[in-house]
Amino acid sequence: MSCPVPDVDLGRQLFDRLRDIGFDGRGMTRPSYGREENLAHALFMDTACGYGLEIRRDWASNLFLTLPGRDRNLPAVMTGSHVDTVPCGGNFDGAAGAVAGLLVLCSWVEAGFRPERDTTLIVIRAEESVWFPLSYLGSRTAFGLLDPSALDMPRSDDGVSLRQHMLECGAEPGLCGRAPVLDSAKIDCFVELHIEQGPVLPEAGVPIGIVTGICGSTRYRSIVIHGQYAHSGATPRRFRSDAVMAGASMMVALHDAWKKVEAAGEEMTLTFGVCQTDPGQANFAAVSGRLELVIDIRSRDEVLLERMNALVIEQARRVEADYHVQVDLGERTCSTPAVMDETLQVEARILAAAMGLPVISMPSGAGHDAATFAGQGVPTEMLFVRNANGSHNPDESMEMDDFMHGVRLLERLLRKRAGQLLPRTSAYGWG
Question: Could you report the per-residue pLDDT of 167-182, keeping only the tens digit for each?
Answer without folding.
Answer: 999 999 999 999 999 9
